[in-house]
Amino acid sequence: MKRSHIVSIVLEFVLGLMLILWPRATMYVGVRLISVVLILIAASGISAFLSERRWSAENVIMLLGALALLFAGGYGLFRTRFVERRLSWILGALIAVVAAYRFWLASKGTANKAEMSASALGLLFGIVIILNPFTSIRTFSILAGLALVYNAATGWLSQRGTL
Predict the structure, then answer these.
(1) What's the pLDDT band for 162 if we cut at 50, 70, 90?
(2) Separation of alpha carbons 144 and 117, rounded Å
(3) What's the distance, CA 56 to chain centroid?
(4) How far apart are CA 76 and CA 22, in angstroms?
(5) Which SS3 state, helix, strand or coil, does residue 3 take?
(6) What gap in Å lies between CA 131 and CA 19, rounded to an integer?
(7) What is the DSSP letter of 109?
(8) Cβ-contact 68, 30 below 8 angstroms
(9) Averaged over 144-148, what is the pLDDT?
(10) Would you give the DSSP letter of residue 104?
(11) Taking the CA of residue 99 as centre, how many other CA atoms within 13 Å lie in the half-sphere pointing to its CB?
């Protein structure tokens, strides 16, 4: 069994358990981690701009993007609860829009029933998240945790050769 597979299996299992046992805390930590990552990406972009020392259009756009990431990361880091509450609504809106677009594409052409059904369920799930964000996001976190634990268990069994 390769060590890299063991590490990923253990991480999947631990993250899955965290999502199952503490879905609200996991969202809080997730917002904080994403904020830190955005700040690090912004710092990298700003340092790249400063090392170039040219005011070309590409460099200015890169600097503006880095500053926007810095603002988003700082806002998420210092207003974590606010972002956490809005994150579920944003996620629901994104799911609903993507599902509606995919449903529209499926209905235009050769309509595959499975794809249309999946798109309709995605649209319904997005609307449910928008209308009842806290319960649905908690349920979604628990289901994602169960999927990770299942994936870790099947990965462990397949690495051992028993599956």
Answers:
(1) low
(2) 21
(3) 33
(4) 20
(5) helix
(6) 22
(7) S
(8) no
(9) 80
(10) H
(11) 19
